[in-house]
Each structure stands twice: as C-alpha cells, then as structure tokens.
Write a structure and sequence with these properties.
Blueprint lengths: L1 E3 L2 E3 L3 H27 L10 H14 L6 H13 L6 H19 L1
C-alpha cells in the first residue's frame, strides 16, 4: 500500500493473495503426499478445502453472470485514463470489511 497525495493506492493485492494461496496449497499437497507415502495405500484421494470450495463457487458465479455492464466498464476505463476517477476510499474500505465479515460468518 502506498499513500499518494492523501489517497491510498493498493498495489499487488491480487498477486499477494495468489502467492499466499499457492503457498497454502503447496503446504497442503506436501502434507497429503507425506500422509499417502506413510499410509502405504495404493488408492488416490483428493479432498478440497472449504476455502477451495468457496473459491470455486465464486468463480463459477462470476463466469455464469448474465451480463457485464459494458457501458459502466467503458465509463470507468475512460475516467481512469483521463485521471478523473476519484473512488471513495472510505466506502471501499467499508465494503471490503463487510464482505470479509460475511465471508467469515458463512464459513463458521
């Protein structure tokens, strides 16, 4: 995160999340691999974590969305290119916290 002229700029959030997720997946694979080697079982078994199931469900919903608001996307794209896009950082932070809390309570 960088603070530029009173506005907060978040860089690499997705990359950081992807790196974290890949690291977590690799740890799970290593645990499962060690467990399988120790058990002596010849059958393979795959179990998805709750996080993986939630990610898959979200991805499917996004892929099956009925419409992409092309006009809105173009409008925002133009505003970003012109430097006139001024997001409400307080509103964005509130939405992020709200979504995180909702996600947290859905897992519980």
């Amino acid at each position: 995160m960088t603070c530029i002229g009173g506005t907060m700029e978040i860089k690499g959030l997705i990359t950081g999340l992807q790196t974290y997720e890949q690291s977590r997946i690799n740890k799970e694979k290593n645990k499962e691999g060690a467990s399988a080697r120790n058990s002596g079982s010849s059958s393979d078994k795959v179990t998805l974590s709750q996080d993986a199931r939630l990610y898959k469900a979200g991805l499917e919903q996004a892929m099956n969305a009925e419409e992409v608001r092309a006009e809105k996307v173009q409008e925002l794209k133009t505003m970003v290119q012109d430097g006139t896009y001024k997001p409400d950082s307080r509103n964005i932070a509130q939405k992020m916290i709200q979504e995180d809390l909702e996600s947290w309570f859905q897992r519980s």
